[in-house]
Amino acid sequence: MSLDPLPDVITGPVIRAALAEDLGRAGDLTTDAVVPADQRATVAVTAREPGVVAGSDLLAPTFAALDPAARVDLARADGGRIGAGEVIATVSGPARALLTGERVALNLLGHLSGVATATAALVEAVAGTGTSVCCTRKTTPGLRALEKHAVRAGGGVNHRFGLDDAVLVKDNHLAVAGSVTEAVRRVRARVGHLVSVEVEVDTLDQLAELLADPVDAVLLDNMDPGTLAEAVRMVDRRMVTEASGRVTAETAGALAASGVDLISVGWITHSAPVLDVGLDSVPER
Questions:
Q1: How far apart are CA 258 and CA 256, in angstroms?
Q2: Of these residues, 81, 103, 160, 186, which one is catalytic?
Q3: The pTM is what?
Q4: Which domain holds residue 244?
Q5: Can you give the residue ranges of the Quinolinate phosphoribosyl transferase N-terminal domain (predicted)?
Q6: What is the pLDDT of residues 25-44, one digit of tens each?
Q7: Could you confirm whether 221 is annotated as catalytic?
Q8: β-strands 87-94, 132-134: how paired?
Q9: What does the pLDDT average to over 147-159?
Q10: Which of 7, 78, 189, 224 is in the most buried spot, having the most CB atoms within 10 Å?
Q11: Contact 88, 278 (CB under 8 A)
Q12: pLDDT value at position 2?
């Protein structure tokens, strides 16, 4: 699949903050001592294991932030599958910039590619069911837009980006309101007509109460496949149905078989294993 890169207004601050954190107060003491200022080099960014690439568009601005003479030639764009030992990108330019930016570039690329790879595994597990895999707000602080972009690179879809772009009434909101009906009443009295509303329910009784005044979507939380199937039958397409709760590649298929529209997964952003990527020197010819 092909994704448009995120704009610099989103990625730039993340890259600059990461570089500033690494460079500290005195810069790269090791590289500046060992590598002559006029030394040039070419390196290959390589996958050590198979996966799905995400974060490749961050390579060029990361190295260019250290020296605008750095050049990146992408071999795999975001969303592309990569095999062990295959090259994601070749980077050439001032050696100091390449070595100083290495860790930040690989940290971002490895983490985001890990998110994409984990997402792709779940997407594959529900293939052919019509169910989509989506992320949540359980993201690394400061990296939400990048991680959600990586979810799309892996074939998933995005849930809301923040508290301000949709309403999601969860169990603690229901506890304060006293009932599903009262929570929905308060929401309808407060938000505009263009704001989507979703309500989380834990039981079929709560779902039945919600169906008396349906909203846009219902989050069916921690239901077993049998209960989930009954919930989907009750909704009968009057709302978008979303399942969540301890989803793995092993359990996703059974949940999707219920006919639910979406399966939301938090760990694909906050706990996805990093894809092992490295930076190797390319000998001059």
A1: 5
A2: 103
A3: 0.96
A4: 124-270
A5: 28-113
A6: 999 999 999 999 999 999 99
A7: yes
A8: unpaired
A9: 98
A10: 78
A11: no
A12: 73
